[in-house]
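Quarterly update from the structural biology core.
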Amino acid sequence: MSGGQALALFGTSADPPSTGHRALLVGLLEHYPRVVTWASSNPFKQHGAPLELRAALLQALVDHLANPRLGLEQRLSSPRAIETLARALDLWPDAEPVFVVGSDLVSQIPRWYQAQQLLGQCRLAVVPRQGWALQESDLEQLRQLGGKVELLPLAIPASASSQIRHHPSPEQVPPALWPELVKHNLYGAGHQDASNESPRSSGAGTLTIPAATQSPPQPPP
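Predicted structure, tokenized:
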């Protein structure tokens, strides 16, 4: 493994990005000199929006945070973590990669494709998620596979993208993104905002969404 500068790698479905995603990115910037994120596509998970759209939403959040140490690199997206890591090492050969996962994924990692090879090529940073307590037995299993595990003391708001998809609310979406969701009527946010006397979508959005990926109008509940 390279002894270079630590590079935090954080892939997320971003379906859509929530206040939790924003808090996590800010927290990672407090712990690592550089952070790279991307919208991921999980073949075992049903997504509410196409990958291209989710990447655009995540880019809008990254742009709003406006930190030169944070970037989005969509080329890292792959269903297999080992492939993502290989691409990162090609792009930043002198960096020390730190693969960031939520505590809900820890028990699954030993079953990932080439998990032992993955753990031998990077550090693993675990972020606590509410409702997913860490088990010492799971952490020990990762260490036995050669994993160098570090636990990040971050307080992440309990905001779930799945809940936003079913009940869009401006309180669970980063302020920079809510106008974009309303403008393009994504996840039904346009309907939710229509009854607001002072809609937060009054400013023009900056996201460019291809027509084929825009969400259809949502009927009233």
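Residues 51 and 128 are 25 Å apart (CA to CA).
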